[in-house]
User: Fold this.
Amino acid sequence: MLEIRGLAASINDKPILNGIDLTVPAGEVHAIMGPNGSGKSTLGYVLSGREDFTVTGGTATFNGLDLLKLEPEQRAAAGLFLAFQAPIELPGVNNANFLRTALNAVRRAHGESELDAVQFLKLAKAETKRLAMPDDMLKRNVNVGFSGGEKKRNEVLQMALLRPKLAILDETDSGLDIDALKIVADGVNALRRPEFSALVITHHQRLLDYLVPNKVHVLLHGRIVRSGGPELAKELEKSGYAELIAEAA
Amino acid sequence: MSTGAAGFLERYEGVIGKLPGDSALRAAAAASFRSAGLPGGTSGRRIEAWKYTSLRPVAEAKFLRDAAPRHEAETILAGLALLDAPRIVFVDGALRSDLSLTPAAGFARFAQQPDFGTLTWPDREPMVALNTMLAEDGAVLDVPADRDAGVVQLVSIASSDADFHPRHSIRLGNGARLTLVEISVGQGTYLLNTVAEIHVAEGAALTHIRLQDEAATAFHVSTTYADVEAAATYDSFTLNLGARLSRTEVHAQLTGKGGAAHLNAAQLLAGSQHADFTSVVGHTAPGCQSRQTVKNVLAGKSRGVFQGKIEVARQAQKTDGYQMNQALLLSPDAEVDSKPELEIFADDVKCSHGATVGELDAEQMFYLRSRGVPEAEARSILVRAFLAEALDAVADETIRARLETAVDGWWERQAA
Assistant:
């Protein structure tokens, strides 16, 4: 599914990623953990094509496609989805229209017919209900005036509608209470099938109690320094990163 | 045949005594125009009010007279999504009764009922002088006291490479209401130079919506004078999409206590288009409110101009004036000139103004694209979002939808 080899990237000539090697097979959920500034969010941005980062080396292959050559919208059409750590507000853009435009853009790219407003609303309302989101979130402007938790749920709603093959969740758990956390985890778990993978970037082990990963990787100074099973997350929760940082130094 | 100011004056010489209305007034206007010339033209004097806009291209263009129409007005009209309401249709400056559905009452033609009004300043405004000199036709609308005249559409279609100088007069009696939707379109290289005089009497409300979607080679100049009496409202919204060069000038005077004037506008420009929105709001009575939000979206090498002046007289206490000019630059070659001015002689007033200039937000663009929305569509969504606030000023949903369709059309033309 996702095959990253020696990926290096910088912003304003400052190197952030320094040779990432990572393989996420189809159907698996991998967690990326690590201290602040280790490059976790950058990895998500680089994979989804944000232009302020410059890829300085390495490759990223997604279902056989050279990911780094594609425009952000082509990556989305190929089935990649990034749930933003800080979702962007779009004043003047109605959330329902935004979601329908995104869904139809992806459907168009797949040669599928577009959904009209009625068909879309039926689908969207079913999803908002499942995610315990108030109905009026569809009527409001995208993320404008949303609480932190509502913004995160809106990301999960987008993911549920776009049905990606690979979801990158960038600290989707931060700022959520335990109920919201369960809802978000349920939203991702509902998508789990053999052809769906997820890369879960998180600070805390808590989310991983509900969204159990196949593998956990620890990112430090832009490199993966350790990989292991779900038990690694529990271990880190106890010991912190200090030991790893000392090892790397 | 001469071009420029001389050409217009030659034309005038040829029609002295043949045009409707007060010939002395026309002669005085001709004298003013002769000394002023076209703003920015080679012979005229320099005028501060035309600092950012030069009519030199108008001076250099050759306008024909009595030219055969090059385009079918009927076809152009059929392409407009008009509202199911009375329509007054002018083709090449003259009323076309056969294409119109005139209001049942209160309508006359300037050609038959010439009225130059009392508010205009041909001696100060060269283009008003030119209009006064050459005006042949226009709409004279009278809404009697306490009557709600609903919606009336005023359509201007240009179908030949000529110059037209319509003269409109709109009067609302005490407590009357009217929604006037003005649409101007055309094909070819022409000049539309409109003057409108508007009176909104005590407690009356005029909603004035304008859609300027002229041909890409056309020139559009429009000067409006509005007198707003006590507790009356003049609520206007102008959408400028077309024309190679346009100038929209509004003079609104709040002359009675508790009156309101809203002069909102949006201009979408591309290529080498130039659009100038100039307004002067005069508060001469106490307790009046004025609101202006003018938004420019500028692509290509286009240039948008906003000049807004709020004048508050000594006696106009408790004035509430607000003015905002915002520009979105879609290209490094686009330019915006913004000149807000406050001139306040009263001491108990609330007046504010502001201006912003920006580009599309890179994070918002990435957010949309990361959801699969192609770049061009993402840009269009964000531009529309920028315009949404301006269009929200149009309360009537059907009319707002009509304007949104026109914006869609503009966007499709840019994409093509």
Remarks:
- Chain B touches chain A through 23 residues (CB under 8 Å).
- The longest strand of chain B covers residues 148-158.
